[in-house]
Model the fold of this input.
Amino acid sequence: MSTNPSGVTVIGLGPMGQAMVRSFLAAGHPVTVWNRTASRADDLVAAGATRAATVVDAVAANRLVVLSLTDYRAMYDILGDAGGAVAGRVVVNLSSDTPDVTREAGRWLAERGAQLVTGGVMAPAPLVGKDPAFVFYSGPREAFDAHADTLAVIGRTEYLGADHGLAQLYYQAQLQVFLTSLATHLQTFAMIGAAGVPAREFLPYAVQNANDIAMYLEETAKAIDEDDHPGDLANATMMGATADHIVGTVRSIGIDSALPDAVKSLYDRAIERGHGRDSWTSLIEVMRKP
Done:
């Protein structure tokens, strides 16, 4: 199978991988696909993609190889079977894992003559290729630049630097906000629900609260970067008392308290370390040095 200079290989055809393939095809890129369960490629082949019979064929088809897998362990399992076919390829791994794991993957691929660009897709599958979607990337600049236009098809590119771990760090930081926020809203609906109030009745207040939080972020970032935490408006002792009241309320109505307990623990430890009169932003010292 000859290498196509404008083509892209996509390995891993879950919902995200399939969405990326369709975006590449819509933009006119020849796409070769491979998946352990071959039937997942059927609809994509019908839409114009080329099914590779083996991993070796898939990797050999194009200089750009995009992985959409569960984690980086899956990359080793799959590309380990590709032998020397990975040499000369740019492997863009959009799977989720830790920064250290991605750095090790960069070394592993380099030993085999390939370059790794790590990435984190900040969009659900239905939004891939649409305006809200963007993707964090890090790795060798020349490898990213060579394929930046193609990668832009699946979402706005945000290149962060040569360190393979940076894209995953940004990605996991964003997911931390996402997962914790979702859990927080579930906790809130559980609290309201304990009084028989439907979630939809409380929804307008939850939405307003979520939107209002954004206005605190600029001053929070300034306080952290300048290491200055004046507590004249909302110090850790005052906010810690509120955290204690939330825990008390949650326990009194008989629902799980693990999440508010964790928040209260941050305030308790900040106060123990002498930050009681400092702003609530001083909690970052507890997070930095547990």
Notes: Strands lie at 4-11, 31-34, 50-51, 62-67, 90-93, 115-121, 134-138, 156-159. The longest helix spans residues 164-193. The chain has two domains: 4-162, 194-288.
